[in-house]
Amino acid sequence: MNPASRPRGVYSPVVTPFSNDLQPDHDRFLRHCRWLIEQDVGLAVFGTNSEANSLSVDEKKRLLDTLVSAGLPVERMMPGTGCSALTDSVELTRHAIASGCRHVLMLPPFYYKGVSDDGIFRSYAEIIERVGSDALRIYVYHIPQVSQVALGLPLIDRLLKAYPRIIAGVKDSGGDWDHTQAMLERFQPQGFDVFAGNETFLLATMRGGGAGCITATGNVNPAAIVDLYRDWQAADADARQQALDAIRAVFAKFPMIPALKGALGIYSQDEGWGVVRPPLVALNDEQRAALKDALANAHFAMPGIEAALA
Amino acid sequence: MNPASRPRGVYSPVVTPFSNDLQPDHDRFLRHCRWLIEQDVGLAVFGTNSEANSLSVDEKKRLLDTLVSAGLPVERMMPGTGCSALTDSVELTRHAIASGCRHVLMLPPFYYKGVSDDGIFRSYAEIIERVGSDALRIYVYHIPQVSQVALGLPLIDRLLKAYPRIIAGVKDSGGDWDHTQAMLERFQPQGFDVFAGNETFLLATMRGGGAGCITATGNVNPAAIVDLYRDWQAADADARQQALDAIRAVFAKFPMIPALKGALGIYSQDEGWGVVRPPLVALNDEQRAALKDALANAHFAMPGIEAALA
Fold first, then answer.
1. Which residue from A52, A119, A181, B285 could staple onto B279, CB 3.0 to 4.6 Å apart?
2. Which residue of B16, B88, B113 is the best one to mutate when testing the A interface, meaning the one whose CB has the most A CBs within 10 A?
3. Which family is annotated (chains A, B) (predicted)?
């Protein structure tokens, strides 16, 4: 792979559509992924907002197979492969590599709490050794408010020293700009790519020398987020950031994953998008109407979505 | 199954031994389970202290197969079958039922945080409907300090009303006696069996009409815990409880799972017991020596363990 294909820009943890009987809906998934790729949004499938941890390893493997078989570009995929169980993480990462995806986003194991840096290091190291591929590039996934397992700077430093090529970057979803900035200053110059965990820090991340963002709202507002990524040095960049923030704030008033799926349903005229797996709950009628109104009031649009998802 | 085989007494979340290359060690596992059964400790395999969430569904299925094939009594097993992914929980629960185990201990899905009671209810309900077995008996697993997903009284009440025979009890590992007591008063009279999450609440739970305890230290101190369960109405019950608490307190000074495995290694003279999967870390030499001294000072013994695990 040439350096030009190193991940940069905007990625989205692609929401996973389900049929009414809660099976992954491969057709809707493929159409949505194709629409994202057309707008230059990379596919961070199997992220938190993908309900990835409500899917079995086999379900994730089959969903990835669907994308690869359909010819979507593997160099624009960054599947989430970090599971609670070591052997699941190894199996899913191997499958990603065998499918041609070399970039993976990897949660630390997330059931046990209060684990040590030694234990987290050992987890990543075991996965790297067992997968045993020089092609592998791991983006570690820092989302302590959900995983409850933080990836601090000393741990990242240690991983980088042990696996300087394989440990390739981070998705920082912690919401703490100081942490993002510290990684930009300390690790980005070593070629460790820092992605903001959502677009509210996109401009700051680009100004700090980072690689882009991996954001839930990339599922619904891809074009505008990609525009800011491309034009972050433009004179009106701050105004564009504010416009992105305003749309994000609408979604943030609702449970995020049901709201993303709700918006896809509303704008594509396909109610089937609303289904979520337990333990999540779909928007109720009142929430859905409120989301619709709030997005209309914010002049939100999803150009082309109806045709793309039809 | 006759009512006499309804689970009562002392269960242990059986620690899962691993080979040096971190594979589940079926031989050591079987020997340990047999030793526990001989002392009338039930097998709550695949609990938190079993490192269950560091094992794949297939690994757990094969470990259960080993016990069942060896003829260990299925009516004394209560495998943990609650996973992060709905489909994993369904698969593992179906396998337990197909193996003849009707009692399962079930965590709620534990990746997503801040989920609603509606979502947790829907998760249990979907699993029950998909497994579709009248034989199934679910013991819900309340361990909010680890799972970060609490099972409150209104949720349990709702589950009991919807599935009065299938929702059979709880393991309460929350460490909050008020919560245990409230369940004993409100639900135990309905036949919902309350198990304390460790033996420090065993006597109080028995006095409150509960069913027993499911405890990590059952792995190492089975006989004494079973004795208190049997003789909880004896004159010296409080003194026995204090003796159990003193041993528990020694283990609680160390990371629990590595300490349990460390003690099994020390007392069985089989160092192979010390291996844990990441993200856990085995006791280091200093910790191991400190554990050995502290247990000796507490006059701790594991009669018969050397022969049993040889």
1. A119
2. B88
3. Belongs to the DapA family.
